[in-house]
Amino acid sequence: MNLAAENPSLIPNEAFARLASDEQIERVAQALEAHNIRTFITADAAQTRKKLFELLPAGAEVFLAASTTLTELGVTEEINNSGRYDSVRARLAKMDRATQNREMVKMGAVPEYIVGSVHAVTEDGSVIVASNTGSQLAPYAASAARVIWVVGTQKIVRTLDDGFRRVYEYALPLEDARLMQAMSVHSSVNKLLVVHREILPERTTMILVKEKLGF
After folding, report:
1. DSSP 190
2. Which of 122, 113, 116, 117 is nearest to 30 (CA)?
3. What is the dihedral of CA 123, 146, 91, 53, to 10 degrees?
4. Could you give the CA distance from residue 128 to residue 69 in angstroms, rounded to a whole number?
5. This prediction's pTM
6. Residue 113: left (phi > 0), alpha (psi -120 to 50), or beta?
7. pLDDT tens digit string along 103-152?
8. Backbone angles phi, psi at 66, to 5 degrees
């Protein structure tokens, strides 16, 4: 784990890219439900987009976390630019980071809805989210009114240890390569959130997709 953190250019461990079996997916869904994380299972990206928009009321305030999963799902334009939703990112884009940074941080931290993804889900219903900046962790953990995670079922792992390995051996090298290509900077795992249970019923929802989406 430490080796990969120090050397994110390692080749991704493709063992963590395999889609889970139907039996694993059902087991994980039951475990998540038992932990107060409402769970839906979808067959593909099209069905997932339909379910996501069913879960988001028209006019709702929505903050899209930075996520390769959401980019691949193709929902960014609809949420941020269609006018159907009160997009936090659309409002942030009109603000000045140099003079309004504190206000911008607060807006991102306490949205009505935050939509994003995670990096690993264990078979007994725990969730791991890794972050470079940590900006999405506060709303995921507590400060957003509603959380919706869209998760490809290649992210299902057996244990927490396997989940941490997945973060460092698979997600980090891929994210590092993406950032280097886009911005010529390296990524790193600076902060981690582990969610074992949601204490508020129906606050957090996960859509498990039987397709490989994101890292």
Report:
1. -
2. 122
3. 80
4. 15
5. 0.94
6. beta
7. 999 999 999 999 999 999 999 999 999 999 999 999 999 999 999 999 99
8. -60, 125
**Of all helices (H) and strands (E), which one includes residue 208?**
strand 204-209
Strands 204-209 and 37-42: parallel
- Tell me the fold of 2-209: Rossmann fold (3.40.50)
Q: For the beta carbon of residue 120, count every other beta carbon within 10 angstroms.
A: 25
Backbone angles phi, psi at 190, to 5 degrees: -100, -25
The span from the CA of 192 to the CA of 131, in Å, is 6
The residue type at 188 = S
Residue 61 bridge partners (DSSP): 86
CA 147 from chain centre, in angstroms, equals 10
pLDDT tens digits for range 40-87: 999 999 999 999 999 999 999 999 999 999 999 999 999 999 999 999
| Three-state secondary structure call for residue 108 | helix
Cα 158 to chain centroid distance, Å, stands at: 19
DSSP string, 122-152: ETTS-EEEEESS-TTHHIIIIISSEEEEEEE
Distance, CA of 43 to CA of 152 (rounded, Å)? 10
